[in-house]
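Hi team,

As requested, here is the filled-out complex form for the cobalamin run. I kept the field names the same as last time so the parser does not choke. Let me know if anything looks off before we queue the next batch.

— J.
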Amino acid sequence: MKGNRLRDDYTERIKGKIIGLGADLVGVADAEPLKALRLNPANLLDPFSRAISVAVRLPTAVFEEILDRPTPNYSTVYQTANRILDEIAFRTAAMLEDDDFPSLPIAASQLLDTKKWYGAISHKAVGRMAGLGWQGKSLLLVNPRYGPRIRLVTVLTSAPLKIDGPIKNRCGRCTMCQEACPVGAIKGVGTQGHYTRRSEALYFSRCVEKLVDEFSKLPNVGAPICGICIKACPFGQKGSKKEQGQDKQVGKGAVSDEKACL
Ligand code: B12
Ligand code: SF4
Ligand code: SF4
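And here is what came back:
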């Protein structure tokens, strides 16, 4: 009992410090089920028992500019978010190591397999298991408050933190992302858990080709980004009922009536 209390207090303290570093959302996932993911290297998770998911929200105004392509401002915001997240993850790992818990920050946007498009670990899978959101029909992680307008990073750690759990999928009958995608890449298939492979949710190559062959070559964009399915999602839109509605927001970092991720 006393042990649990100490663990819970330590977890809250660490989460508070991560929010203090500039994060908008933070949650903790058990590393064990994540071992089923394709990892690079394959033994990435072996030294760790937990994966901390951290998110920053993106300024909503940047999406107003996006009509049928990513803009230079969106590209800058994307790069800045990655930089902020990488710094938060770096400092979080150092903080945990000061308490004698070996910890590894995983970069926000590092591509390791350039042929098949894989990073070291899926930040969305970690975020979902840490209660930051559900996997939407767009394949993106959708937070009840900020929608998919968030970027993510992961810190792997041996600290025995209290685990958060997944939250319910709220896509329902919505098809906004499917309708908005300029290349019809989103199939519109929902999941209550997660897709077993990307191709269940997406005509994957359509998305990759649009981003790599066209959008990344736009002047002052220079990265395979898009933003259209993010913008279309009613969750996270300023003034949308979804944003103001059922979610009891009680401040920075708290996300939902089901599982709070402070
Ligand atoms: C490579 C990459 C791309 C490639 C390939 C995309 C892809 N879907 O894999 C391209 C260039 C096409 C791309 C496009 C985009 N990307 Co991208 N991309 C990445 C990157 C670097 C690696 C992705 C990867 O390894 N995928 C592997 C697949 C298998 O994983 P997955 O896509 O998450 O899907 C599986 C898991 O989530 C799993 N799952 C979910 N829960 C659980 C739980 C358990 C226990 C298990 C076992 C599995 C599991 O189910 C899915 C199917 O298998 C990540 C950063 C990262 N390291 O995660 C960013 C990332 C996924 N991209 C991101 C974004 C925003 C985009 C774009 C919107 C572009 C933009 N910035 O405007 C589009 C969206 C396309 C789409 N609809 O999916 C964000 C997503 C944020 C969010 N809110 O979800 C990420 C996380 C970057 C970040 N740091 O925030 N991207
Ligand atoms: S990122 Fe763009 S091309 Fe890819 S699924 Fe979303 S809207 Fe479609
Ligand atoms: S736009 Fe609708 S279907 Fe797509 S992820 Fe958002 S809520 Fe789900």
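Two things worth flagging: The longest helix spans residues 72-98. The pocket of iron/sulfur cluster (ligand 3) is lined by residues 136-138, 142, 171, 174-177, 232-235 (CB under 6 Å).

Thanks,
J.
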